[in-house]
Specification:
With 332 residues, the chain is α+β, with helices and mostly antiparallel strands. The chain has helices at 2-23, 98-103, 108-126, 129-134, 136-151, 170-212, 214-229, 242-251, and strands at residues 24-27, 31-37, 40-41, 49-52, 58-64, 68-78, 84-95, 156-167. Strands 3-2-5 form a three-stranded antiparallel sheet. Strands 6-7-8 form a three-stranded antiparallel sheet. It has a two-stranded antiparallel ribbon with strand order 1-4. The longest helix has 43 residues, at 170-212.
Length: 332
């Protein structure tokens, strides 16, 4: 009898152990349990810890409440300013209603992923390239609202959405590089011009001080010579001040002004011939008229000009009285 009771007790204990092993479930701290009894949802969510279910009738589904990091595949689209880009993002979400996450949607992870891709394409088409590159915070907020609206019905809350990378075509990268280079060149020129303006004001003030004190210019010249000579150069360039030349020019005596004789006026009419004066003694007849060169024929006046009225004066006869033989220059 005792053996039978002992055997029955052992069998009962084994049955209870088997039942407890089949009915006991452990829910972790970051999980929540959903129980279906004969396919119907049991009210209430099983908290973390040890929970019991009916081994045959109940089915326990555990739902993770941790924040899930879901990468969104790169989506290629055309922005509002007609630029082709590839944008990828990442979505952070968590389950806030385990029952809706299990019942309302078949696979809430896949649903959130597809919704994120669709919303990302929509954001690309509504935004400009400059917004994708520099105003990402606003785009992230808009993308979060677009994904969070349908996800609330699935028991999922979108924690945040971040755009990771924006890939541009090579031609667009080169164009943007040229634009940035031109902008930097413009700013460099503006800064250089501003520096020249400030330097010109300072130089004008220094020139005013040096004009009041001429010795300051000489001291500045000596300082320049010292600075150049300190470099141990083989060639020394010594500037020569213009003010020194002006000082020497003012100190030089001014020569008296001399009046130049007036230039003779050109003769308009040829002079009249002088009468031949007979000398006291006749010259020897060696220098006759045949020794004189006969004048050549005169060139006719150019067309359109009037011939001179006065005849050319005969050459002076220095050989004495005229001979009996007629002279060829006076014939006719």
């Amino acid at each position: 009898m005792v053996d039978q009771l002992l055997t029955a007790g052992i069998a009962a204990a084994a049955g209870v152990a088997v039942y407890l092993g089949a009915a006991a479930r452990v829910v972790k701290q970051y999980e929540r349990g959903i129980v279906f009894r004969f396919g119907r949802l049991r009210r209430g969510v099983r908290p973390p810890g040890l929970t019991m279910i009916l081994p045959v009738a109940d089915r326990l589904h555990k739902v993770n409440l941790q924040i899930v990091t879901l990468p969104v595949p790169a989506q290629e689209g055309i922005t509002r300013d007609n630029v082709t880009v590839r944008v990828d993002a990442v979505v952070y979400f968590k389950v806030i209603d385990p029952a809706s996450a299990i019942i309302a949607v078949e696979d809430y992870r896949f649903a959130v992923s597809q919704m994120a891709q669709t919303s990302l394409r929509s954001i690309i088409g509504k935004s400009d390239l400059d917004d994708l590159l520099s105003n990402r915070e606003k785009l992230n907020q808009g993308l979060e609202l677009m994904i969070d609206s349908p996800a609330m019905g699935w028991g999922v809350q979108i924690d945040r959405v971040e755009i990771k990378d924006v890939s541009l075509p090579e031609t667009m990268k080169r164009s943007m590089a040229r634009q940035a280079e031109a902008d930097r060149e413009r700013r460099a020129r503006v800064i250089n011009a501003d520096a020249e303006l400030q330097a010109s004001h300072k130089l004008a003030e220094a020139a005013k001080v040096m004009s009041d004190q001429p010795a300051a210019l000489q001291l500045r010249l000596l300082q320049t010579v010292i600075a150049v000579a300190a470099e141990k150069n083989s060639t020394l360039v010594l500037p020569f001040p213009v003010e020194l030349l002006r000082f020497l020019e003012r100190a030089a005596p001014t020569p008296p002004a001399t009046t130049a004789p007036p230039e003779p006026l050109p003769a308009t009419n040829p002079p009249e011939p002088l009468p031949a004066a007979a000398g006291p003694e006749p010259l020897p007849a060696t220098a006759g008229p045949e020794s004189l060169p006969a004048p050549g024929p005169t060139a006719p006046p150019p067309a359109g000009t009037a011939a001179p009225t006065a005849e050319a004066p005969p050459p002076l006869d220095l050989a004495g009285p005229p001979l009996d033989e007629p002279r060829p220059d006076l014939a006719g």
